Automatic annotation (TrEMBL), chains A, B:
Protein name: Cupin
High-level lineage: Bacteria, Bacillati, Bacillota, Bacilli, Lactobacillales
Name of a matching Pfam family: Cupin_2
Superkingdom as given in the UniProt entry: Bacteria
Domain Cupin type-2: from-to ranges: 49-107
PANTHER family, sorted: BLL4564 PROTEIN, RIBD C-TERMINAL DOMAIN CONTAINING PROTEIN
Length: 144, 144
């Protein structure tokens, strides 16, 4: 039984639908509940992303922008290229700066959800391999 | 006994400290937990605001920016000048555009909290009178 199964039903903002539009940039199943779409006068999009255990997005970069993650449920991982991974829990906040290659997702054994506030244009890169993912999980556990 | 007393302890992001820095722009007691400070490369600030029952901020305008409210707990009110007030519940999202005069806060009988994502410079105006506030509450209840 995975940890934090309740996250599957959505924490505050709802789980939303299967994240089919971005499925090719994810390993495993994620769900997206869109909250705000960027528009002329509002330079960010906001969405609640829910990850099944082991699900993570590919390495990616936000160009001419940034991303803020507000962790709402479960247990997850965040890693910037060349740095140790961080274990994420509810109430944690992550700011990814312009041009920084990174990924985020659930731990192998827990559901995970975060609100993402995103500006700029994403560039999607290679998947996080099982090897990288397991190493990140070890690092996250060691440092917490 | 007020409704949604649990919101007093913070929903996910913590209640934070008494919002002394902005107290002069509020009627009643609010609390602020800062999550992200705006900086050169990140044009928004993010904070969790908790309002005691009856607490609301003054009428205000975001210039050269916007504000997004993500409701996290309790029951609140949002009103733009010249429009009917809206009753807010967890999962509700509000986008205030550049230049729009508005206010937000708790209902008279409930704690309330929202995450605020704010860009630009606020201009603080007059308080929401008790009369305006009670009328807004009636409108919110009628329309829900």
């Amino acid at each position: 039984m995975a940890k934090n199964e309740n996250v599957k039903n959505g924490i505050i903002f709802g789980r939303g639908q299967k994240n089919d539009a971005f499925a090719k940039y994810f390993t495993g199943q994620s769900y997206l509940k869109g909250l705000v779409s960027p528009e002329k006068e509002v330079n960010v999009g906001v969405g609640n992303v829910t990850f099944e255990p082991g699900c993570r997005n590919n390495w990616h970069i936000h160009h001419n922008g940034y991303q803020i993650l507000l962790v709402t449920g479960g247990e997850g991982l965040y890693q910037e290229e060349g740095k140790r991974a961080q274990l994420l829990k509810p109430e944690d906040v992550v700011v990814t700066h312009d041009g920084v290659k990174h990924w985020h997702g659930a731990t192998p054994d827990s559901w995970f959800s975060h609100v993402a506030i995103t500006a700029g244009t994403p560039e999607w890169l290679e998947p996080v391999s099982d090897d990288q993912f397991q190493k990140a999980f070890q690092q996250g556990k060691e440092d917490k």
